[in-house]
Design a protein that fits this description.
Rossmann fold; single chain; alpha/beta; binds S-adenosylmethionine; two-stranded antiparallel sheet
């Protein structure tokens, strides 16, 4: 097991999910941007680095029926799988993979929406960022959407003991490239369970 994977497995093994420094009871900023996409209910939505977030619970409640949950941590995916109540007409695929050393994700069908909250910012090596972008560009359909949430330029320099790369809407746009049109962005202050504040940026792009 890679050191990175072990790092995340240990976190999810040792802490209740609602005490994690990124836990949200309602992923309202993500849902706000996903709402802007006006996707049909059978759109394929991929949550990269989903962890045990309730975003997928909410997407299922909204009637979405085709979701792929990707995370480096099998423990996080188990927590999520155990909690989710998946309607009969919906399918959630659970994929354990490392976006910097992708295997299974490379073979996924095209996606209408790629969502990532707080994963991209952990990629501080240019080679890892390039691999992430290559996979994203391979999977996101033309006309599809990308919703990214990362620490903003005013944000913390580390998260869960790891260094992070901070972004604003321009650097996120530069990262994705010209064929991803920035549709909307906003700063968002996340309140950690401990009470500390973490400034994020949320941005929505559409592939042209
Ligand atoms: C800060 S948490 C955010 C979790 C979730 N997106 C949320 O908003 O609650 C980062 C997540 O990314 C996962 N992760 C970290 N590095 C990853 C990688 N290289 N590939 C896939 N997932 C990764 C971690 O296991 C963790 O669940």
């Amino acid at each position: 097991m890679s050191g990175l994977r072990e790092h995340w497995e240990k976190i999810y093994r040792e802490k209740p999910t609602d005490q994690l420094g990124w836990w949200e009871t309602e992923p309202e900023a993500s849902l706000r941007l996903i709402g802007r996409c006006s996707l049909p209910k059978d759109a394929h939505i991929l949550d990269m680095g989903c962890g045990a977030s309730v975003l997928i619970d909410r997407l299922l409640e909204l009637g979405f029926v085709r979701i792929t949950a990707v995370d480096i941590s099998a423990t996080a995916l188990q927590v999520l799988k155990k909690r989710l109540s998946i309607p009969r007409n919906a399918r959630v695929e659970f994929v354990r993979d490392d976006i910097t050393q992708p295997e299974t994700v490379l073979h996924l069908p095209p996606v209408d929406l790629w969502h990532d909250r707080a994963v991209l910012h952990f990629l501080v090596e240019e080679t890892d960022r390039q691999v992430y972008r290559t996979v994203l560009r391979r999977l996101v359909k033309r006309g599809g959407y990308v919703c990214l949430a990362t620490f903003s330029l005013e944000g913390a320099r580390k998260c869960s003991g790891l260094p992070v790369q901070r972004y604003n809407h321009r650097t996120l746009a530069d990262f994705l490239g010209q064929d991803f049109q920035l549709m909307e962005w906003f700063p968002y202050t996340y309140h950690q369970p401990s009470g500390s504040l973490r400034p994020y940026i949320y941005a929505l792009f559409r592939r042209v």
